[in-house]
Amino acid sequence: MGRYGPLLADSGIPVHCLRLVSSRPSTYARLGNLLRLIRSLAPDVIQGWMYHGNLAAWLAHKALDSKPRLAWNIRHSLYDPKLEPLRTRMAIESGKHLSGAPRVILYNSHVSRVLHERWGFCPRHGHVIPNGFDVSRDDAIDVASMRAALGLPADAFVFGHFARDNPVKDHASFLKAATAIAARHSEVYFLAAGAGITASNERLMANIPPSLSARIMLLGEREDVPALMRICDAVVSSSYSEAFPNVLGEAMASGVPCIATDVGDCAYLIGDTGLLVPPRDTVAMAAAMQTMIDYPEQTRTWGKLARERVSANFSLHSVVEQYAALYNGELV
Predict the structure, then answer these.
(1) Is 0.85 surpassed by the pTM of this model?
(2) Within this chain, do residues 128 and 149 fall inside the same structural domain, yes or no?
(3) Do 250 and 173 fall into the same domain?
(4) Domain range for residue 294?
């Protein structure tokens, strides 16, 4: 059931795992299991989640005589379908032709909605609900001890980058900008964490001169990302495509200011609490890093404003209420 299935089950939420894997022949037989399960549950609402899940939701909806309300959810900015893997392109194309079927198509970013409707998704029932963040969480951590455990000086200026190894996250641009800054400032350090982000990743390490590798640290996948964010002075997102990146909202909710590429709804999320740069522009990214280093008081102020902005506009509570209102209103 992956990482989240057990968490949901432990909370008392029924979870049925079909173990659908597109590369296995048994997938089609398990789709039959999905249809049988849906018939037994007799739902009032079927909610799809991302491209392949939306198609499965459409199929389940078609199989039911009762025809419950159908909703889709898209959490991706479709700048160019040709950049997507083949199976994803096929799911996008199918979704486009079937997009008149759902009662509502939810997007987590305004840019995502515009781009999908531009590519042919039905605009009639488009609706945006952003991602939400837990602003009540305030785990106490010993910043000095955690920095020391990682070999970071107590007074170092630390930038963090948190993303899995995926081309769209554009680690190369982040590492090139980090290298330029690290070469000029011996007191500045960089942390990068995520699945596949390790010193054994030769493709990533090719961007880091050996003389700077002690200050540009690749930590791999971590379970303590919220704590890692809080020992950073700023968090950087270098993606060339996003919808509504959780990493920015989570950093902001922790009072950490962000530098982000101007993709998806990053500008809407950050507002005036951080800095935006064009995607794949390492010079602009390095310049934004330099600004935060040069003006530490402003950087700390941005962090405070960032937490206030998330609390006022993107709290988990407010997002849950928006979903509840949707399910109790348009989808009932």
Answers:
(1) yes
(2) no
(3) yes
(4) 143-313
